[in-house]
Amino acid sequence: MARKLPLLTALPSFEAAARLLSFSKAADELHVTHGAISRAIKNLEDQLGVQLFERGTRSVSLTAVGEPYARAVRETLEQLAAATAAATARYSSPTLNVSTSDGFAGRWLVPRLYRFHRAHGDIDVRVSTSGKLTNFLGDGIDVAIRYGGGNYPGLTAEFLTGEEVFPVCSPKLLEGPHPLRTPDDLKHHTLIHDSFPIDWARWLSSAGVEGVDPHGGIAFDSATFAMESAAQGEGVVLGRTMLVAADLAAGRLVRPFAHALKSPSSFYLVHPPAAIRQPKVRAFRDWLLAEVKQG
Questions:
Q1: In angstroms, rounded to a whole number, what is the distance separating the alpha carbons of residues 136 and 283?
Q2: Which Pfam family, an example, fits this chain (predicted)?
């Protein structure tokens, strides 16, 4: 029985326009004209006999039919791209492109990468910390390490580890005129903030601490900078298990209180399903799981 397939050459244009909600941005991404995008989508709509976009004067939006169709097309293109990469793996570049957050890269991954290079000297690792969501199809990313709930439609998400959140500081803050002994002692110290969803307001409330401004202190967008500020003795930051493990082991940071909050999110290794067929992806995945297990 013959398959009823859409106009395949139009699918990249449709996927980009649906993801960006802009024909112009889709044209820029695919290096074609706005007219080429518009014609491709119109031809696709004519073939399907449905309207995929609502077109406004300065904007476009997906219709009730177009939204689920866009998700299906995106997943199909991701799978096709991964399958193509897997089929040509032995002829492709030995470079493994990894996407993750700057905090995870700087505080956990990068200090351990030398061990991966020792075991797999033929694989060059490139780490991207752009902070944007990974588009495996367009960004050339092989695997991503993500912090979330594990729901990544159309992708394989392998659980790495959960996390707890707790205050950490320089050992020098355990001494002096106001040493940190109990959570109430935080009223004498500067709070350091980063962009993590569990903030000081939640932690202080859970610990029963009153009289401390949960919003005052020093703020950073980067977890790496926040942890470094704490290590220099500038205040107390909320640490996360994976990101402070090395500093706790080295004594650069200490954990003054036992109280911790369990994070609702966890770390996952995320990739298109077919990507695991590539030896470089499989090697990195096996190494990563072993490192996490080792602690």
A1: 19
A2: HTH_1
Domain span including residue 13: 8-86
The C-alpha atoms of residue 20 and residue 31 are separated, in whole angstroms, by: 14
> What average pLDDT does the chain have?
90
Structure tokens at 110: 């990068």
- Using 50, 70 and 90 to split pLDDT, how confident is the model at 35? very high
Q: Answer yes or no: are the C-beta atoms of 220 and 226 closer than 8 Å.
A: yes
Tell me the C-alpha distance between 276 and 282, whole Å. Answer: 5
Answer yes or no: is pLDDT of 91 > 60.
no
Query: Does residue 30 lie within any of the structural domains?
Result: yes
Q: Mean per-residue pLDDT for 199-224? A: 92
* Among 60, 86, 112, residue at a domain's last position: 86
Give this prediction's pTM: 0.63
Angle of CA points 27, 28, 32, to nearest 5°: 50
Tell the residue number behind the tokens 């969501």, with chain if given. Answer: 133
Shared-domain flag, residues 201 and 143: no
Q: Are residues 208 and 229 in the same domain?
A: yes
CB 151 within 8 A of CB 176: no
